[in-house]
Amino acid sequence: MFHQFKILIYKIFLKSCENSLFFNIYKKIFSVLLRSYNYFDFEDLKIDKDIYFSKNGLFKGEENFIKKLSQFNFKSVLDIGCNQCSYSECLIKYNRKLKVHGVDPLFLKGTKRVLKLYPQNFFFYNNGITNKNKNLDFYLSMGENKDYGISSLHNYTGRVHYWKINKKLKKKFYTLKKFCSLNKINKVDFVKIDTEGNDYFVLEKNENLLKKLGVKIIQLEMSRYNLHVDKNILNISKILKNFVPFRLNLLSGIPQKIDVNLPDNNFYFYSIYIFIEKNFYKKKFKN
């Protein structure tokens, strides 16, 4: 009897989805559920214009996570895809002894400002990092001179609705191994990657290097861009076998442990993922 009742409810629900009004209501509900899973859906639920370090915004999880990082007294950070360098600046704000190596193919206004403010803490490298050493096409969606630009090695024109190519540049890219060797970087505590869909290729074949550098925590993103490069968190976790995977709570900044084999941890909606080296996790997080 109960089984038949459930079937009836499903039928009513599916029938109601044929109505555009009900369908849009359900879509909003789905967006709320995504938020509860710490996915940030850019299209359907615009609660906060900027989830990054917004003074009055709802989503302060990333800054709260940075505050927690400061208690570990890290000495060296690699910020790959630093863009306007607001993340690097926030790291230094909470740990004035930190040295941050910012890497980005674009030299933007924010970069110049952070270099001027923190000359002893922030070091900038005007190139990109991927899985090859080569001059590559680099696509700008909002312009190199804008206050905020979306840019990537990948051209998402026609695949991401807001992506419109403003300019294509030739930029120098290195593998992570080559980059660290060239710049004599032999110790990194924390790696943050924000490369608009290229995160997997930054990490590819670098398992031994990460261990050699002593990397304890890696932060990266997954979003709709990953759909178009065919890489998800499960793929990335296969590179980071010596790390425990988490998704960051966008409100509290608390990393929530996940099973990367489940589909609900691999949605192509924006979210921040944290990978913590297993031994470091046991010592600093588990208890």
Structural overview:
34% of the residues lie in helices and 21% in strands. With 287 residues, the chain is of the alpha/beta class. It has two domains: 1-36; 50-135 and 174-284, 3-Layer(aba) Sandwich (Rossmann fold). The strands form two sheets. The chain has an eight-stranded mixed sheet with strand order 3-2-1-8-9-12-10-11. Strand 10 (243-248) and strand 11 form a beta hairpin. The longest helix has 17 residues, at 20-36. The protein is globular and about 70 Å long.
CATH H-tier superfamily of the largest domain? Vaccinia Virus protein VP39
Number of strands: 12
Q: Provide the gyration radius in Å.
A: 20 Å
From the 3D structure, determine the CATH topology of the largest domain.
Rossmann fold
Helix content: 25-40%
Largest sheet: 8 strands, mixed
**Number of helical segments with 4 or more residues:** 11
The helix/strand class is alpha/beta
Shape: globular
Rounded average pLDDT: 87
Order of helices and strands: HHHEHEHEEEEEHEHHEHHEEEH
